[in-house]
Amino acid sequence: MARRTAYTSSLALAATLALSVLVARGARGLELRQVTRPYLHSEGPSWDRAHNGLLFVDIAGDSLHFYDAATGGVRGLAFEGPVTPAIQLPGGTLAVGVGRTLQEVDWAASGFGAVLASRPAVLATVDQDKPGNRFNDGAADSLGRMWIGTMGPEPVVGQVTPNQGSLFRITRRRSDADPLWSRLVDPRGHRDTDGGAALVTTALANVSISNGLVFNRRETLMYYIDTPTRRVDVFDYNLAAGTIANRRPAFDLAANNVEGNPDGMAIDADDNLWVACFGGSQVIHVDPRTGRLLRRVAIPASQVTAVALGGPRDAQGGDTLYVTSMRKGLSEDQLLLEPNAGAVFAVTGLGVRAQRRP
Length: 358
Hints:
Blueprint: E1 3-6, H1 14-20, E2 31-34, E3 42-48, E4 53-58, E5 63-68, E6 74-78, E7 83-88, E8 94-98, E9 101-105, E10 121-125, E11 134-140, E12 146-151, E13 165-172, H2 179-184, E14 198-207, E15 210-215, E16 221-226, E17 231-238, E18 243-252, E19 261-267, E20 273-278, E21 282-287, E22 292-298, E23 304-310, E24 320-325, H3 332-337, E25 345-348
Antiparallel strand pairs: 1-2, 2-25, 3-4, 4-5, 5-6, 7-8, 8-9, 9-10, 11-12, 12-13, 13-14, 15-16, 16-17, 17-18, 19-20, 20-21, 21-22, 23-24, 24-25
């Protein structure tokens, strides 16, 4: 059962709140609930509108999870390797990254059970020349075209080998007679060489930690994070062609005196961004058109990893901000200050709703 707790938005109280399990309500009426137990590295949340729940992964725990908003229960599915991302695809299946391999998984067909009803299909394996790499964050556009990035080895939490990752465009193969497939095929006829069931194109190279990828409502812009830059960048996006161009900064954390490094990201119905700040105990709300910091939301965990908007009222656009966090890498003393690190939290009372594309 989820623990309901009142919430304050003051960053200065973050450590105190962690010890007192968030007992004070903030002046702006925000409320934070811890909705799962702590995991090693909860990440990659996305709201599953069809099943009224939240999908998320535990990267270090090699597992995919589903939080049922109606019951408060969490179900899990184990894999053989670090799991991220888990992207919802048209038709109800999931694209799940396991290490450097992307699999198509129909978890809903098994009722989100511990055993799949059918064997996953291998879509692609990337970075063949960099066996220490793994997938990190990603998203799909409205046509089901996936944009997923990788990162280099991380022998110590926060110490990633730089410039080893890439950003890939990955498209499931379909019959040439399929109208949707004909809109998605690479005009150059590119075919991947690993025998997977997808087309793979490298969109960006020399990436350190590919992160936080979202589209605006009209899908004319794609926002993207390479974490060590401490920026959110934006590209012009051509949905028909599946191409990005004209990269430029949208928000600079250092210039705005924001603590922490940008990690996962979500976008709301107003096309404003919500950015998880790893090492900053907060999520920031940003207007990417003006570069303005709108507000900060404190989280009782220093290693905030990602965010998603959703919730039971998602028919009108969910109004709950789900926040994942990480406990891996924290010392015993740090865990005493933030015992719930690694849990998934839900913040309400923000006055925003999830984006619904046309």
